[in-house]
User: Fold this.
Amino acid sequence: MPAQDAPTAQVNRLAYLLLVMTTIFWGGNAVAGKLAVGHISPMILTSVRWMMAFTILLVIAGPQFWADRQKIVRHLPLLFIYGATGFAGFNVALYSALNHTSAINVAIWQAGIPMFIFLLNFAVFRTRVTPAQIVGFLLSLIGIAFVASNGSLDQLVGLVINRGDAFMALACLLYAGYSVALRYKPDLHWKSMMLAMAFSAMVVSWPFAFLEWRSPAGIVPDMQGWLVAIYTAVFPAIFAQVFFMRGVEMIGSNRAGLFVNLVPVIGTVMAVLILGEVFGVHHAIAMVLVIGGIWLAERKPAGQG
Assistant:
């Protein structure tokens, strides 16, 4: 028995390592976006990120993309929408948010994405919900409201929300829409999917970057701006996606998906250590509510495998 269990244990350890690295890269995205403030503007950062990522992916995935070209052409509109919303739109909104709110707030907001997915699935597809899912949704909603109001009851009652939190609400909605639409994902090799969506994100980002560059808000990258762009292109955009897909293949989507809940935790720790941001009591309460709500919503009823 031990001899048979050893390969499984080794596979699990590798999968866990890949998934933890994924959450570190994703958590670092918010910190990198905060470090970009004043060194490269959000639209330009998104454009540069996806131009770099597309160039790297072209080398890695070019042959597979060419082999799948006929299937890609048939599904081009859908692939374009995926890249425009989940890749370009999400990052434009997230990097814009970081000009107006903390990296900790952004990290906790990202934990609320499953709540938005839950809401869209119910609204569009009338997905059946359980009482536990409803309670979990409400807990996550309260947690997000706590972050948006900075723990202030007066702001919460008055529905006062700053621009950064509004951008993050948009970012979460865009990524949730992308995630829900993935149910229509064509049967394509992951390399072809990544390259097609990176190309879409790059093209969609160009007009926004151009308009920002011509405006007073445009900031051409300096050395720190270029380093941030390189990090976001290589680690969150490519490595994290590849590691997560590999982790799903190794231990399944249900177990791999639980690691996403580490993103706000790791992002918060990095924001404190690298940026010197203050982790307040309201952040702790919000994180417990959001992650606890997601855990409750995703927990299977007794008797289900």
